[in-house]
Amino acid sequence: GENVEQHPSTLSVQEGDSAVIKCTYSDSASNYFPWYKQELGKGPQLIIDIRSNVGEKKDQRIAVTLNKTAKHFSLHITETQPEDSAVYFCAALFSNDYKLSFGAGTTVTVRA
Amino acid sequence: NAGVMQNPRHLVRRRGQEARLRCSPMKGHSHVYWYRQLPEEGLKFMVYLQKENIIDESGMPKERFSAEFPKEGPSILRIQQVVRGDSAAYFCASSIGGANEQFFGPGTRLTVL
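^ inputs. structure came back:
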């Protein structure tokens, strides 16, 4: 199956600063890369995703970039706010498959 | 427009008992996935079902675990003779079709005493 590695495991940023989380994947045929935000005691919430035919996607303060050659993708959160504090998971979906392979997660803490 | 529903939210069982976890997909979704999350780990795929069919159960332990998604009613993940190692959060996700966006429910947190 697909192997997804995620870094860093924890990230502490000052409110207003940017946060960047990086993931690498092993299977070059993967073509769908979603990011999920999980708050304590809740289920993962899809916040943004990107497909392999696109290099970058942005939604307000959140952006995702994809480098297919290097097989890595990143989540960028700008102007961080306390409510951005959560665990973020990257995932990858192999072409013609349906089961998501998840990274181990990044715990983001935004300091007020 | 209700999202994915799971119940119970919390379930406590003693070793050897059975656990039944239920999942109702989003309206219009006919594809259901079950994932397990151990403490401080990512989610691991268990099983993928469509109505009345198990499509892929490669991530589910061969013994004690079973899943179904009947024509009527919610999807059920059943764990027989639970052991302490089964303690985890179990999440259900649904999608309109395979290989589409998956939306997750709030999860069932199973504790085995």
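The interface with chain B takes residues 4, 6, 32, 34, 36, 42-46, 49, 89, 93, 96-105 of chain A (CB under 8 Å). DSSP finds no helices and eleven strands in chain A.
thumbs up if we can close this ticket
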